[in-house]
Amino acid sequence: MVLVTGGAGFIGSNFVLRWMATRDEPLVVVDKLTYAGRRDRLNAVMHDPRLRFVQADVGETHTILALLEAHQPRAIVHLAAETHVDRSIAGPGEFVRTNVVGTFGLLEAIRIYLDKRGATEQSAFRYLH
C-alpha cells in the first residue's frame, strides 16, 4: 500500500493513473480538492477496489495519522502543493500554509506513525517529496 498526497492534481493524477495501469499495489489518494485538484481526473480508476480516495488536507496531522494507522502504507509520495506563481503573488499565505505548514503536518504524522514501528519497518518505509 502506498499513500499519495495531491493525487487529484495535474502531476498527482497522472501518477495515480499510471500506477493503477501498471501495478497491482493499492493506493490511498489524499487531496484537499482546491483549485488545482479535480476528482474527475481520477474517474477512470475511481471504482477500482485498489484505490481509496480521501478528501483531506495534508496539514491535518490527526487525519493523516489515522490514515497511516488504518492502511499502514510502505511509502508516501507527497505531491500536494500550491504551484501557480500568479496565485502565490496574490495570496502567499496559502502557499506557506500548504507547502510549508502542510508538509510539516504530514511529516509529524509520519514521525508519530513510525515511532510506533520496529526498526525493520522504519528502515523499509519510504517518503518521496
Secondary-structure element pattern, one letter each = EHEEHEHHHE
Amino-to-carboxy terminus distance: 17 Å
The pLDDT mean sits at: 94
Strand numbers in spatial order across the main sheet: 3-2-1-4-5
Radius of gyration: 15 Å
Please report the number of helical segments. 5
Contiguous low-pLDDT stretches (5 residues minimum) are none
User: How big a fraction of the residues is strand?
Assistant: 15-25%
Number of strands: 5
Structural class: alpha/beta
Describe the biggest sheet?
5 strands, parallel
Overall, the morphology is: globular
Q: Helical content, roughly?
A: 40-55%
Q: How would you explain this protein's 3D organization?
A:
The protein is built from five helices and five strands. Helix 2 (61-71) crosses helix 4 (92-115). Helix 1 links the parallel strand 1 (2-5) and strand 2. The longest helix has 24 residues, at 92-115. The chain has 129 residues and is α/β, with parallel strands linked by helices. The protein is globular and about 45 Å long.
Question: Summary?
Answer:
The protein is an alpha/beta fold and 129 residues long.
Strand and helix layout:
Layout: E1 2-5, H1 10-22, E2 27-31, E3 51-55, H2 61-71, E4 75-78, H3 85-90, H4 92-115, H5 119-124, E5 126-128
